[in-house]
Amino acid sequence: MTHSPPPDRPPRNQEPLEFDDFVGVLVAFLSLGTVLVWGLARSDQGLNFSFPTDVPSQLPETEGSPVEVTPTPTALGARIGAIASPAVPMPIASPAVEKSPQPQVVPVPIGNTVSPATSAVSQNSVSQAASFTDVPSNFWALPFINELGRRNILAGFQDRTFRPNQPVTRAEFAVMIQKGFDQPSVRPSLQFTDLAPDFWALPAINQAVQTEFMNGYPDGLFRPEQPIPKTQALTALANGLRLPQPADPTTALSFYQDANQIPNYALKPVAAAATAGLVVNYPDRALLNPQQVTTRADAAALIYQALVQLGKADKLDSAYIVQP
Question: Which end of the chain is more exposed for a tag (fewer CB within 10 A), N or C?
């Protein structure tokens, strides 16, 4: 049994060390040695005797400015373990960053109003037909395509093609009219049962109707996705430009070997277009092909000739323009 020394006990150097005190000191040194050996065994890089001012058990999650960490007292064993192990910076997790999806290459007409299902591209990416992979330098409509491309009325697709032989729909032709002409409105817009309020070409169709370039069908339909025949394209241009109609359309159309294929409703406006020099026929100038669908190359030629008639474009030298 160990007796506690009285408060007025003289200094220890004046009396011998008792057995109980000796045992306590020995146990303390053995414990300290055990802890040091354990810490040394866990260290791969030896001892580090620089005492850290603070060893937080966990870094706080922060946003913005750093947060000061207040040191907390630690037990001797934990402090010794920190001494034995080298200081290793703890990584702070960064917030997850979502990768932006790569844009899909979707062919869309440059410079024209397009459906929301397709992606528009820069109007300056392809402005000359010479850049198109599918329009050779000797293509019959190259001069017309080049000029309308320069004016951003017609242009190519994102895949560097123009697709000159692709049919033009009635909605697409309305967009070409909207971009090519600025005729004044002369009547209110019409309501068509097959055009939704959010239809991609509705503003262009409304403008084409208000300026009398285009009309609907007697059944109240506009049929926007229907390819437009050459007869309708010439009729639209003649009506929208207010071209004077000849008294005898048969005589004005006598040059064309297939004039008998022109519908009766279109005889006068087609004759007016022919008299004004709007007709461009490829490959045979004498064949109008009135029921044939209008291609993108055909549309480029007809619209450009209409601009010439308005005095807004210079005449081009083409063997396929039918001179009035």
Answer: N
- What are the residues whose beta carbons fall under 8 Å from the beta carbon of 255, sequence distance 6 or more? 274, 286, 322
Dihedral sign of CA atoms 266, 233, 181, 187 in order: positive
Two structure tokens written together for 4? 């506690």
Residue carrying the six token digits 């992979």? 133
189, part of any domain: yes
The answer to whether residue 169 scores a pLDDT higher than 60 is yes
Which of helix, strand or coil describes residue 216?
coil
Decide: helix, strand or coil at residue 295: strand
Domain tally, the chain = 1
Strand partners, 167: 295
> Are 171 and 198 spatial neighbours (Cβ–Cβ below 8 Å)?
no
Q: What distance in Å separates the CA atoms of residue 289 and residue 287, rounded to the nearest whole number?
A: 6
Structure tokens at 152: 């951003």
Of 73-82, 150-159, 181-190, the poorest mean pLDDT is in: 73-82
Structure tokens at 182: 């600025």
Neighbouring residues of 75: CB distance < 8 A, sequence distance ≥ 6: none
Domain assignment present for residue 184? The answer is yes
Task: Name the 3-class secondary structure at 321.
Answer: strand
293 strand-pairing partners:
229
Helix, coil or strand: residue 283: coil
Residue among 323, 313, 310 nearest 242 (CA): 310
pLDDT in tens, 207-251: 999 999 999 999 999 999 999 999 999 999 999 999 999 999 999
- Which range marks the domain in which residue 275 is found? 129-309
> In Å, how far are 232, 252, 279 from 302, measured between CA atoms?
12, 18, 6
| Cα 186 from Cα 76, distance rounded (Å) | 95
Distance CA 257, CA 55 (A): 98
What number is the average pLDDT over the span 270-293? 97
Is residue 180 domain-resident? yes
Q: Give the tokens for residue 299.
A: 């549309």
In a domain, 265, yes or no: yes
Kindly state the tokens that stand for 45: 């890089």
CB 206 within 8 A of CB 245: no
